[in-house]
Amino acid sequence: MTENTELTGKVVLVTGASRGIGYAAALEAARRGAHVIAVARTVGGLEELDDSIQEVGGSSTLVPFDLRDGDAIDRLGAAIFERWGHLDGLVANAGLLGTLSPVPHLKPDEFDKVFAINVTANYRLLRSLDLLLRQSAAGRAVFLSSSSARSARPFWGLYAASKAALDAMVKSYAGEMNTTNVKTNVFYPGAVRTAMRAKAMPGEDPDTLPQPSDIAPKIVDLLSPGVTENGKLYDVTKGVFEEL
């Protein structure tokens, strides 16, 4: 099988890269030749990722910080500009589940924290990285969301609302990119064997779920220069693009 090198020489930023889906996506991007800028709070997880990336012959830059720090996001954008002058790919994966609870029982600080990571941090990323994506010959961004944005099941109100807000924001931004080389889409990963899934569904048998490495290639596919879809949803459980 021919090695996939379509991202060789590309610069790709992945948030929530220290574990789970973000870790797998970062490793997959590196395997395809990208230099990965890995963002997460957990230094140990980032160092493990760096070891894995080196094992596949890739390279990475580790950036440990909390995405609630908007000034740090701005500094990151400035640092990318200084070093590379552009950004070819963004995998906005970091997210919080929050508490599964009746909406009136949610604590205000919990509500604010989930929106800070799932919505505000992604706005700050777009604010900081937009010019860098435009400077790429084929800037690509994919935002990890959830079908909860549409199902809005009882007790899932906080998470569902945050993901619905994310979907709406990404759709608007994508429309603004119609006359540029930037393509931006949303990815629904479905049920995956992650710590977040275990928290949400504690009685579920994790062996029945796909691993993050099983879906990572589909995420990284959306960073390909050959992607023409923009402002669309890719639901991995259906395997097709849909309207957001």
Q: Report the mean per-residue pLDDT as an integer.
A: 94
Number of domains: 1
Helix content, binned percent: 40-55%
The CATH first-level class comes to Alpha Beta
Question: Largest sheet, if any?
Answer: 8 strands, mixed
Number of helices: 8
- Strand % is 15-25%
**Rg, nearest Å:** 17 Å
Provide the fold topology.
Layout (H helix, E strand, L loop, with lengths): L10 E5 L4 H12 L3 E6 L2 H13 L3 E6 L5 H14 L5 E4 L15 H28 L4 E5 L3 H4 L5 H20 L6 E6 L6 H6 L11 H10 L10 E4 L4 E4 L1
Parallel strand pairs: 1-2, 1-4, 2-3, 4-5, 5-6, 6-7
Antiparallel strand pairs: 7-8
Helix pairs in contact: 1-2, 1-8, 3-4, 4-6
Can you put this structure into words, describing what you see?
The chain has 244 residues and is α/β, with parallel strands linked by helices. It has a single domain, classed as Rossmann fold (3-Layer(aba) Sandwich), CATH 3.40.50. The chain has eight helices and eight strands; from the N terminus they run βαβαβαβαβααβααββ. The chain has helices at residues 20-31, 43-55, 70-83, 108-135, 148-151, 157-176, 195-200, 212-221; strands at 11-15, 35-40, 59-64, 89-92, 140-144, 183-188, 232-235, 240-243. Strands 3-2-1-4-5-6-7-8 form an eight-stranded mixed beta sheet, with helices on both faces. Helix 1 links the parallel strand 1 and strand 2 (35-40). It is globular. The model has no long low-confidence stretch (mean pLDDT 94).
